[in-house]
Amino acid sequence: MAEHTLEERFQAKIDAEIKIEPKDWMPDAYRKTLIRQISQHAHSEIVGMLPEGNWVTRAPSLRRKVALLAKVQDEAGHGLYLYSACETLGIDRDTLYEQLHSGKAKYSSIFNYPTLTWADIGAIGWLVDGAAIMNQVPLCRCSYGPYARAMVRVCKEESFHQRQGFEILLTLSKGTEGQQRMLQNAVDRWWWPSMMMFGPPDADSPNTQQSMKWKIKRFTNDELRQKFVDVCVDQAKVLNVTLPDPDLKWNEERGHYDFGEIDWEEFWNVVKGNGPCNKERLEARNKAWDDGAWVREAAVVHAEKRRAKKKIA
Ligand code: BYC
């Protein structure tokens, strides 16, 4: 069968909302795009454990510590589902890890910012997980079956994390003046980086158009960013905080909030590896990998022994 016919049948399946499964024929570019996006997503979950992990030993109560530990552990789980989904496309996990550890792979810009106070943990839950949910709920309908299915559980857990973060901030908002200042300061620092999570504006996004046609993405970067702003404005009122954007204003005609210019220079700088914590994050991942060598070796020996025992039996 001619290549173009296969491609047409593939697109027809996507148009008919039929999921593409690992053994189905797919264009090389579709496979490559998915490996790129899913691996970046997996790396983000894994690196995303670091800023929050920083507060596990300093959480203000046992209840907060247990909840934060559970959240960080969920993120490790998300990373593992996503690496598994990525492997169904024919790339092995060691290659993916190598790409992360060598600094070749991208992961979300947001995790290159520091967590300076306890309020940052609440702000990450509210804004970062909030942005992640906005972006990830439509991914449950992604055309590639294993990615779409992995996202269902990820989204359920992310939604729990977002509420947990909001509750941390709500508690601070009812606290002392110092706690309220700490809350405002965290929101001031996390707002713009969270807006950047959705990626460059549609006009400068090389991948969006094709990914929409393939139904990997269901909304563009700008569409999701706008939804995020619209939702956050009302939530900020409940928290009694100001979003640090003087241009934020309801636009009656558009039926949406207008917002100010995003500093794209800062975004690209962070993506290129020059953000406040890029170096620290990569060092931490490499150290964890090296320190864990004996665990991996022990696991392999254990598996081999079990296999040998089964053979004898
Ligand atoms: N950071 O053409 P574009 C989470 C790159 S949430 C770094 O629009 P695409 C978590 C992009 O990769 C975070 N790089 O790309 C939450 C591309 O470069 P390459 C992870 C970014 O793929 C809470 C170039 O810019 N979520 O894990 O169509 C706690 C041009 O962009 C960023 C996901 O990964 C960025 N923010 O759209 C713990 C969701 N934005 O690859 C963990 C899945 C863009 O061509 N991913 N770039 O060299 C997606 O939905 C899409 O990949 C994006 C970008 C919307 C992020």
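The mean pLDDT is 96.
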